[in-house]
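Entry for 6-phosphogluconic acid complex. Fields follow.
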Amino acid sequence: MPVTDTDLTDADPALSSIGLIGLGTMGAMLALNIAEKGFDIAVFNRTHTVTEGFVRDAGALATRITPTATLAALVAAIARPRKIILMVPAGAVVDQQIAALRPLMDPGDLIIDAGNANFRDTQRRAAELGAGFIGIGVSGGAEGARHGPSIMGGGAPAAWDRVAPVLRAIAAAYDGVPCAAWMGEGGAGHFVKTVHNGIEYADMQLIAEVYGVMRDGLGMTAQQIAPVFARWNDGPLHSYLVEISASVAEATDPETGAAMLDVILDRAGQKGTGRWTAVEAQHLGAPIPVIEAAVAARNISAALDARRAGQARFGAAPGALPEGALTLDDLMAALIAGKILCYAQGFALLNGAGAAFDWSLDLPSIARVWRAGCIIRSRMLNDMADALTESPDRNLMLAPVFADLVQRHAPALRKTATVAMTHGLPVPALTAALGYFDMMRTERSTANMIQAQRDFFGAHGFERRDRDGTGFHGPWAG
Ligand code: 6PG
């Protein structure tokens, strides 16, 4: 007789309804969030003193938290069928943790990987463990994990349904709708989270570029830049990332009194999810030039010694803009257009991935899940959800509301990109957005030249404009 969830349910009220392994910042915050929403939770951390400290600091929530010192004790503390969240570093540690847990668990128990896994690992684990494993993307940083993240689930739908009540309860909500949803089978949840992070890189880079134009082109101080971002945050650019950009620009270093931004080294780290987005987009043949430019810019930022050598050899670009060359409104408009074009690429990538991996990715649902809780949350995502509901397969830049915005703001994007480039201010993500826009509105591209070259050196054949059919060849000599 098949074992059902009901057979396995252990009604002992002393048992926790869920478990969590890994009490680093994200795991600890998630556990507190779960406890706060009324679920009893058993926790385990490799170093037990961390667990003890966590429970000691949990205040009133400690009554809902069961600390455990071994994996066996953790498993024994959870009501069956068990649900155990892994919040451990992505990669081999997840496999090790699963291998250690499995012998202790029963059929029907569920492991939930909530880390930033590579979706290909999640695909593999889901294939190995079936309905006993799901991968969920969790966004929102520590604050989000504590008070309401955005959650992108993947795996067997029945397994998702079992843990969905907890995940919906702890997630952020937008207009009362929880930002937690099932995205598709296997690694779909982690794939969507990866693309979220790719877009996050691009959003951040676009903001950093207009910050650079203000700082180096317009000679503005961080204190002058802060209110500009704050003002933009009241309009179409209303978003978490613009909001925090205002806050960081405003902050001063308590030690030196200097603007915090001027104290921070211009070398950005990364854990790799943005890069994964670019890699997967290349596998899928999906154009995401703004995200790729952002990933490249982060890599170039890391090469500080090489940049120093470049400046020593060539000198810094002049940078400073002549009076009136660009206005702050130009920059805001450029950011609006750049952002829309970037998201158009991100959603088109998701569309392509859904088809390629046989996931029925629901693009409007993804936009809805991103409306609150996550790092890229923004007002625009609500309109994007509506536009994608109207037509999920249409490029977002062609949806009437976004087509109007792009039409209105593309001239400022062009002006900003060209003025910045003329004066040597690097704006690779803005120019990538502009290049994408120009290519995407050009019916007659220059790929006829590419086709001719391919045929010339490799007899690859081409199509003709004046006839149907393929495999035509040119009158090339030799
Ligand atoms: C989120 C963030 C989160 C983390 C990134 C940072 O959605 O909450 O994306 O996952 O901050 O991994 O990524 P990098 O270290 O690559 O910038």
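NOTE: The first strand starts at residue 18 and ends at 21.
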